[in-house]
Amino acid sequence: MTDAPSSAGDRRSRILGGGGGAGRNVAVALVSTAVVFTALGLLVVNSSGWEEVRQKFLNGEEFRTWFPDVLSAFWLDVKIFCVAEVVILAFALGIAVLRSLPGPVFFPIRALAIVYTDIFRGVPTILVVYILGFGVPGLQLSGVSTDPVIWGTVALVLVYSAYVAEVYRAGIESVHPSQEAAARSLGLSRWQALRFVILPQAVRRVVPPLLNDFIGLQKDTALVALIGPVEAFRQADIGANADFNYTPYFCAAVLFVAVTVPLARFTDWLIARDRRRQQGGRAA
Amino acid sequence: MRTFLAIAATGLALLAAACGSSGTSSESSSAAGSGGSNAADPCAKDSLQTLEPGKLTISTDNPAYTPYFAGGPGHEWKGEFNNDPYADKGFEDAVAYAVADRLGFTADEVTWTVTPFNQSFKPGPKNFDYYLAQVSITPQRQQEVDLSDPYYAATQAVVGLKGSPITKAKSLADLKSYKLGVEIGTTSADAITSVIDPDTKPNYYNRTRDATQALNNGQIDGLVVDFPTAYYIAFVDPGGGTVVGQFSGTGGEDQWGLVLDKDSPLTPCVDQAIASLKSDGTLAAIEKKWLSDIVGAPVLH
Regarding the domain with residue range B44-152+255-293, which homologous superfamily does it belong to in the CATH classification? Predict the structure, then answer.
């Protein structure tokens, strides 16, 4: 890239089209957006089934009736998500570090880490939720919880840790080997080199893809509904069944989007900041 | 059981006698609600066009399961869990004989045949005058065969694990404090919220199978399903449970009807017999005896 943007304003003007004055670009963007969306809107609204679809999917009265219920059920999704996210960050890092251990002695550990990521990335999340949610409590182990919320969360942690561990590993491997060599030559132990030199660089590089996985995780909290608990999706299900109307699902969709969109924008911002730092070189 | 159908035409009475019936019923008065001893009564025993004149052929599946048949193995119904319909024991068995009685047939005049469940409501010649084996009344089936007015409308029931605290519940109010589970989108799901209204939100499952697993896992205290399913889950598969009680749902539950050949002349007479069994409380008594008292599934209020 030849003209590295140096300010947010430059970047924005490039997104809007480039060339010419910023004011004109904004105007053109606004007009073309208005034209495209008006055309799309007219196409949908004038379709023959629109009235019925609107009644069944976007019914204002249904929305007002069910939104409070779906919202209160949505807190379960938020709780599951928050707990799972913290556990995943730590657990997946552990897996990634184990998989990055050098030397033949650690082969069994590396093999285990590989088997783990292969299995849990391979098995559909919905199956892991089912198997853990109904299977583990079925063992009737004393002292082990049978709470489906707990086991649903564990299932999500296991699946998403496999993805996130791979993201971490990519980060660790992207740090040049000379970094570790330099750290070791300064007298740091292998663990210290990992902790103070490799991981800080690795994690910083993978923050955007990490957040990407967490957006996926937020949506997948709805899978926990399969094993019993009433979260947003299930509450919407109940509403849809009660009134034979799909609008409650729309309530749930709005809530999920309301949480994932800010996270997505935050991810974009982090990527942009990283690029600025790397391309600016001295800025970081 | 005694029969009370009017038989006015002497010639027909003689024919009936020739076919092995007692022949002494010709003077008895009608109780089937057809209004006096009218010779033209199409539902008089001797006007009925049954498969075999003077006899009634009833059919069910083989095996015949409890609590719908409960006489133990016999005749063609062999095997440990099978039940002989000739025994007149069990809910549907009792219904079958009660309808026969109202049509004017004694128990001796009833012959049982075997028809696999799925064959019973298919078009084509029938080897029965009427058939019963928990056949739900559906519009599709009504296009293929005649289905009588319902002799049973499923109740809702709560299944609990044997010996668990919920089994001590004696009323609907007692159920409120337990964690219940239900299949989403069913009449049972409606019944939980509008009839029981539990203190904690019930768990919802995509399939009754999942809810059953959750019950066995101890993830829920009680499972709400319709009574026939509850019986099956509690005592057959996976078993080890008990039906805590049953209650009326909010409507829309499964209804069972007797199967007859399409456009059978018998259908209106069977409907009339069922109406008469309903109005004098016989049907309710049969249901109480075989689906509540013997099963140990009290009706909760």
Answer: Periplasmic binding protein-like II (3.40.190.10)
Where do the structural domains in chain B lie, given as residue ranges? 44-152+255-293, 155-247
Of A62, A81, A76, nearest to A250 by C-alpha is A62
Residue of B nearest to A227 (CA): B205
- At A170-183, the pLDDT tens digits run 999 999 999 999 99
Instruction: Indicate yes or no: pTM above 0.90.
Output: no
Element (H, E) at B189: helix B187-191
DSSP state of B132: -
**Cβ pairs bridging A and B (under 8 Å):** 52
Q: What percent of chain A has pLDDT over 90?
A: 63
Task: State whether B218 and A148 contact (CB < 8 Å).
Answer: no
Give the residue numbers in A contacting B (CB under 8 Å), as ranges: 134, 137-138, 140, 146-148, 225-230, 234, 237-238, 241-242
| pLDDT, position B172 | 93
pLDDT at A179: 93
DSSP per position, A54-76: HHHHS-HHHHHHHHHHHHHHHHH
Q: Residue A153: how many CB atoms within 10 A of its CB? A: 21
Pick the residue with more confidence: B40 or B240?
A: B240
Structure tokens at B290: 């075989």
* CB-based contact A227 B214, cutoff 8 Å: yes
Structural domain count, chain A: 2
ipTM reported for the complex, 2 dp: 0.76
